[in-house]
Amino acid sequence: MGQALGFIVGGRLTPRRRDGAFGAVDRVLGCIAGLVGVVTIVWLVIPVFIASPGWLATQTSNSWIARTVENSLPPAPDAMQALRSVVGQGSFPDVFDALRPTPNLGSPPDSTGLTLEVATRVARSVVKVEGPACNKLQDGSGFVIGEGLIATNAHVVAGERSTNILRDDGRRFDGTVIAFDPARDLAIVRVAGFERPPLPLANGKSEGTRGGVFGHPGGEPLRIAPFKVARLINATGRDIYGSSKTERKVLEISASLRPGDSGSALANEQGEVVGIAFAIARDTSNVAYALSPAEMQATLATAGSAAVSTGNCLS
After folding, report:
1. Would the pTM count as exceeding 0.70?
2. What's the mean per-residue pLDDT of the chain?
3. Mean per-residue pLDDT, 168-191
4. CA atoms within 13 A on the CB side of 268
5. CB–CB of 129/85 below 8 Å?
6. Which of 58, 163, 166, 297 is the most exposed place for a label (fewest CB within 10 A)?
7. Which domain holds residue 163?
8. Are residues 161 and 235 in the same domain?
9. Does residue 37 surpass a pLDDT of 70?
10. How far is C-alpha 108 from the chain's CA centre?
11. CATH value at residue 189
12. How many domains, in total, are found in the chain?
């Protein structure tokens, strides 16, 4: 439609005579106008292509033209909010603010490397997080990070008026969100009488660490997915609403995760938490992202005793 309107308007503005100097100027201006139009279209559709799953996102991320346009122009107006409405990609925050090809991390490990004793101990302190938000039920995962305290992602509880925590034995508890950080994408939920031990946070280097991602993908029963940490990076991305830039310490991991794994504990072979899952690569099925223990400790330090707002709904 836009192309047709442009053709009609351009046709009426174009003089009938195309010879001589005026014709040469007209052709040059026409080329410039065409180039501006193409650049504008690319500028507007880049966010939509990047958020699309599979081949389209991969080609866009690897495109020199797309990266040049994005780096040279300001963000497209309301592009991220528009694409969330179109493709339903409203849960995961943008890990990176700029176009960046997803790295090839290889296939996830065949196994977690955890003993049965360690896996059982970790599983007892892993939870499912549920709550109503804007006429829909949100769900994700979480784990015990302190006495009666659950760590999860902010996008899991965003906009909720009430939050429920489901323990490994199926018992349901009422939770109170006492820390909500949309920039880091972390939240802390207080649960009275939960009676499950906190999982220790790992210290030291995480690169090369293997283990299991303990989560509830799709709201299903607990699943333990093998992972391997590729690297720890300082990532400049967007908050959960896509409204402002934020910096996070992020682990790039090789793992096959699904929606619902958000908030999952990444446990190493000793049962220590090396990260909390918060995003999945849109163009590659075996690359995911987790927030480092330092990010969790920073959010935990802001938790008080009173309930806090969980912000607006994501979509």
Report:
1. yes
2. 83
3. 98
4. 17
5. no
6. 297
7. 91-315
8. yes
9. no
10. 19
11. 2.40.10.120
12. 2
